[in-house]
Amino acid sequence: MKKTGKRVAIAILSILPILMVLAVYSRLPEQVPLQWGMEGISRYGEKWQLFPLAGMNLLFAVLMPAFAKIDPKRRNYEKFQETYDWFILWLLGFMTVLIGLTLLESLYPHTMNIPKAVCCMVALLFIFIGNKMPKVKQNYFTGVKTPWALSNEVVWNKTQRLGGKAFFFGGILMLIAALGASEKVLMTITFGVVAIICIVPTVMSYIWYQQELRKDGE
Predict the structure, then answer these.
(1) Number of domains in the chain
(2) Would the pTM count as exceeding 0.85?
(3) Is 174 in contact with 188 (CB distance < 8 Å)?
């Protein structure tokens, strides 16, 4: 997709969730599902609360380009602007589908296993992030932003490559589990994947930074 096409898609997705809620608002029950756990709906709320959730797309569509402009390393965004636009597009798409699933459950309860559907979506998002992360250059808003990676470009690149692999293969594992495993197994795998994504690149980033310090001291 060309740059103009992505920008148009981002603009559409920024307001689409609000339009979706408006289109069916009169048909919605007074209480709608707002939060799910692995065992199903964990919290209901008044239907007007869907508007702040739907408005998150517009907020992110405005804030994420703004973050790039105020980032101390904003010049680096020119090196991965296409990837950054894809991040925004996928995030907005992910949140749009979440609103769609919420409306589906509100209007036609139990049509779909929502927790598993959400896990599939998260898994696909992780796979996408993992594929794109190695292209991300040093910045303060995107990627695995450890203090050691932000202090050294070599460490940053190694950290993003490792983080990309963790996201990618973790996403594949989550997708397989979401399609065939029980809710309990899926929950265990999800927490395990998230823990690995958070811990392993962080630890290795520190180790690589120490290695770079030793090289500089030689």
Answers:
(1) 2
(2) yes
(3) no
